[in-house]
Design a protein that fits this description.
- The complex is a heterodimer.
- Chain A is α+β, with helices and mostly antiparallel strands.
- Chain A is built from 23 helices and 21 strands.
- Chain A is extended and about 125 Å long.
- Classes of the chains: A alpha+beta, B mainly beta.
- The interface of A and B includes residues 82, 86, 100, 102 and 349 of A.
Chain lengths: ~750, ~160
């Protein structure tokens, strides 16, 4: 293990000894790759006069190179998960250190320490890790080990459900007391076997008269026990099933609420089918477990405990023999438990594979049909199903052997009791009645053990489900709500991006972006796909938080504001407008459910949507499907514009709002957009440069960097990146016109 | 657009450590050399792009190059890519995520941190990409070819 070979602070210790008198250690950064990019621990050390390279040679820290600080320059870049720290003099690369992205914070700190020193700053002391105290470079809170070692969830995940059970604890206690009483009631009948045998049946067989009074007393006792047991059992199941149903519902709601607060990037990484299965099926499974299996198990444990007490009070030797198979069965359960859990976890995963095929295929049904790939999708489903069968067959192999084994042990246990009991009876140590009572008791006792063994699989299944639920619940949104959100005064609409960088996975999407947007200004963002345009608006909407730098609105960092408060001020019009199932009026009023009908109509008019809505048979009450199937792209778009207009936002984001429609429709949308833009701070993304003609300022992005900014005329005069984009589009438009195709031209189709 | 093929070209490295491509007497600085199918056909076609991401050269079969150029192309590729190939899983810290794996790769033994099941992605039939928390992607080229112990570990997550 690379981490274990060298302590984080061993590097600075090793180099401290070699420092000259007037030399001070500035920063140490660990590296984990050698020149051939093989894993090897090493470090870069920065002092006030040199930069050193350390490596592990024969398990000892050695200096493998050093360079004087003057004339040189440090730079840090990364690609595909590997960062490189370069030391150059002039144009010549003298040395390059490489390491995985996880070590980048250390290198970043070293770079900052170098810049600080170069600019004549004071020597800053080395900082310590906040968690374990080892030396870390200045500016890093936690050392690598502390930062990475998150705790995996323990196998006692089910206990965490207590958080949801707490509100119902008084009813749970009632249920428990009822369970105790019901169980006691069921223990009465076998107890009566003993006197029935010894006092009535055996004396009768030996020629004595039957004591009828005693018979009816015992029979009444049996009946009463059965009736009481029935009533209590009913009450107990009713109380506890109600409670568990509520716990399940709370769990489901909490999970969904938590899910809604996750950032957009979280949903990008998850599959819809999987999330749906978790919230739907898993919570239900936990629910059934709580209301049925756990309840049965608790009853069984109580019964076994009580039975054991009763058995010991009758005859402790026989009791001991009776209880002997218990640990053996316990061991068997334990041994199989692990394999079963593994199997069930796999079966679960395979099950989401099956639902994933559905979730992938159904929304994409038009593509599937257009390319005539029904057969392929069916085969994919069949394969997932077959996989599911295979896994379940394997699980069932273990499982099917398990239950009969328990039954076999039960029979053997009974055999032992019979044998030992008969021997004791023959020695006159116990009466026939005692033996009969024992057999009656353990008849129940062992059948309970059999059903108890089932709890293993139920518990494992529920625990696997709970783990998958808590996976969601434990996931902290990477767009966290501030602990004490600042109240947001009425927004003017100034947006400032200050040195913003954003990394998506190992890809740097936005680099050191600075942008100041005045209230009411309209900014057009252009660039090739992949240049970071959509990421830019995602940052402004706070769908992501920047990796570095800040986004400010009216001078307030958006991270200090409550997310919902802030977003209320943003109107968003997307390339693919999403309409929820419901009426058109409901869709327009999505952001402001309290809007009056007059306001809805006014918004629709301003969005040029009123007329086509009125042509629909049910007007504003027309139902639109999951994705508004019955409306055209342009019509859906105008509804989404009306939706944005209705909330009257100060900040407006147009993300390729017109790129998926033809140019006639675009005109209609454009007119609607012009109404929308008026007086609002607007950020508009468009491939089609012509749609940005109203923009006050254009920003040209290329690979996450702002390469140009200015008005259309200024940028055309500059003959830079914008000019090149413009010329390319003009050429394409011409070519298309020559081919007889009329319509708008996009550089390329996809959104970034 | 046809694949640009050139008879005369040379790949070299400037003192700043950047790769440069000389084609028909024109020197392109800071070029990027990339495999077209790094996982399904690592020995297959290679493409050279300029600093703006435009294609300069397409090499259908790099193995057919002369030894010197082949070496340089390989060097340029290795200076850019980093996908350690997992040969064996030696240890996993926990069966549920986050899970720290100790693996033996073609680049030596190392640790990686798996944050969720979605970090494991099947590529093609037998290969698996493992994305660790720090953004490095590890490749398992052929799952059935792993040793028994590694497959056992992997089974718990697939």
């Amino acid at each position: 293990m690379t981490q274990a070979l060298v302590d984080a602070d061993a590097w600075s210790k090793a180099v401290s000894a070699t420092l000259k008198a007037d030399e001070t250690l500035l920063a140490v950064a660990e590296t984990d790759l050698d020149a051939a990019r093989r894993f090897a621990p090493g470090a870069v050390v920065l002092t006030t006069s040199r930069i050193l390279s350390l490596a592990l040679v024969d398990r000892r820290i050695r200096s493998v190179g050093q360079w004087p600080l003057r004339d040189g320059a440090l730079s840090l870049t990364d690609h595909a998960g590997v960062s490189s720290l370069d030391w150059r003099v002039g144009d010549t690369l003298l040395v390059r250190w490489e390491f995985r992205l996880g070590l980048q914070p250390g290198a970043q700190a070293l770079l900052e320490a170098w810049e600080h020193w170069r600019d004549g700053g004071e020597v800053l002391p080395l900082a310590h890790c906040r968690s374990c105290g080892v030396d870390v470079p200045v500016g890093v809170a936690l050392c690598e080990d502390c930062a990475q070692d998150e705790k995996p969830p323990s196998s006692l995940t089910l206990l965490r459900l207590w958080r949801f059970a707490r509100p119902y604890r008084s009813r749970l206690l009632l249920g428990f007391v009822l369970t105790m009483l019901a169980t006691s009631a069921t223990l009465v009948p076998p107890y009566l076997t003993k006197p029935l045998m010894d006092k009535l049946l055996i004396p009768y067989q030996n020629g004595q008269d039957l004591d009828r009074e005693l018979v009816s007393l015992y029979m009444l006792g049996l009946l009463a026990a059965a009736l009481v047991g029935w009533g209590l059992g009913w009450a107990r199941t009713y109380v506890l099933a109600r409670v568990s149903e509520r716990i399940g519902a709370d769990l489901r709601t909490a999970t969904f609420e938590h899910l809604l607060n996750q950032s957009v990037s979280y949903f990008g990484a998850k599959r819809t089918g999987d999330l749906m299965a978790r919230i739907g099926a898993e919570t239900d499974r936990i629910n059934v477990f709580l209301s049925l299996h756990l309840l049965d198990f608790a009853t069984d444990v109580l019964m076994i405990g009580m039975t054991a007490v009763v058995l010991f009070s009758i005859n402790h030797w026989l009791a001991l023999v009776t209880l002997l198979p218990l640990p053996i069965i316990g061991y068997l359960i334990h041994a199989v438990r692990d394999r079963l859990r593994r199997g069930f976890e796999r079966a679960d995963r395979i099950w989401s594979e099956v639902t994933n095929v559905l979730a992938d295929t159904i929304p994409g049904i038009r593509v599937v049909k257009a390319f005539a790939q029904e057969g392929r999708e069916a085969e994919r489903f069949r394969a997932a199903n077959r996989h599911n069968l295979e896994i379940n067959d394997r699980v069932n192999k273990v499982w099917s052997m398990f239950a009969p084994s328990v039954t076999l042990l039960t029979e053997i246990g009974l055999l032992v009791v019979w044998t030992f009991g008969i021997w004791q009876v023959s020695n006159d140590e116990i009466t026939v009645g005692t033996l009969a009572a024992f057999i009656a008791y353990i008849g129940r006792f062992y059948t309970r053990l059999d059903s108890m063994s089932r709890i293993v699989s139920h518990t494992q299944k529920a625990a696997a489900g709970a783990k998958r639920i808590f996976d969601i619940l434990d996931h902290q949104s990477n767009v966290p709500e501030p602990a004490e959100p600042r109240p947001l005064p009425p927004v003017e609409g100034r947006i400032q991006l200050h040195d913003v960088s954003f990394r998506y996975g190992n890809r740097q999407v936005i680099r050191h972006l600075n942008l100041d947007i005045k209230p009411g200004e309209m900014i057009g963002v252009v660039g090739h796909s992949g240049s970071g345009k959509s990421t830019l608006v995602n940052l402004v909407c706070r769908f992501h938080d920047p990796s570095e730098g800040s986004v400010r609105v009216d001078g307030i960092d958006v991270r200090e504001l409550a997310v919902a408060d802030y977003r209320r001020n943003i109107g968003l019009v997307l390339q693919e407008p999403f309409l929820f199932f419901g009426t058109i009026a409901e869709n327009i009023a999505y952001g402001r459910p309290d809007a009056t009908r007059a306001e809805i109509v006014a918004a629709a008019r301003a969005a040029n949507a009123h007329e086509f809505i009125m042509r629909l048979p049910h007007g504003y009450d027309s139902l639109v499907g999951e994705r508004g199937q019955s409306l055209s792209g342009g019509e859906r778009q105008r509804i989404s514009i009306a939706r944005a207009l209705l909330i009257d936002p100060r900040i407006l984001i147009l993300d390729e709002a017109t790129s998926s429609v033809d140019s006639t429709t675009e005109k209609a949308i454009q007119a609607a957009l012009d109404n929308l833009v008026r007086g609002r701070t607007t950020i508009a993304i468009a491939h089609r440069l012509s749609t940005l003609r109203k923009a006050d300022r254009l920003v040209v992005l290329d690979r996450g960097e702002m390469v140009e900014t200015g008005t259309h005329d200024e940028l055309m005069a500059r003959r830079g990146a914008y000019y090149a984009l413009h010329q390319a589009q003009a050429r394409q438009a011409e070519a298309l016109l020559e081919d007889g195709v009329v319509g708008g031209v996009a550089l390329d189709g996809g959104a970034t | 657009m046809n694949a640009p093929a050139h008879a005369h070209w040379d790949l070299l490295r400037n003192p700043a450590g950047q790769w440069c491509l000389e084609v028909d007497g024109v020197l392109h600085e800071r070029v990027v050399v990339a495999r077209a199918f790094p996982i399904s056909a690592p020995e297959g076609p290679v493409c050279v792009l300029d600093a703006d991401g435009h294609e300069l050269l397409w090499l259908e079969d790099p193995a057919a190059l002369d030894e010197r150029l082949h070496e340089r192309v390989t060097a340029a590729l290795t200076s850019r890519e980093f996908t350690p190939v997992i040969e064996a899983i030696l240890h996993i810290s926990s069966l549920s995520t986050p899970s720290r794996w100790t693996v033996r790769t073609d680049r030596g033994i190392t640790d990686l941190l798996l944050t969720g099941e979605e970090a494991l992605q099947r590529v093609g039939g037998k290969s698996l990409l493992v994305a660790d928390a720090a953004g490095v992607q590890y490749l398992i080229r052929d799952i059935p070819a792993l040793d028994r112990a590694s497959r056992k570990f992997l089974e718990r997550f697939l």
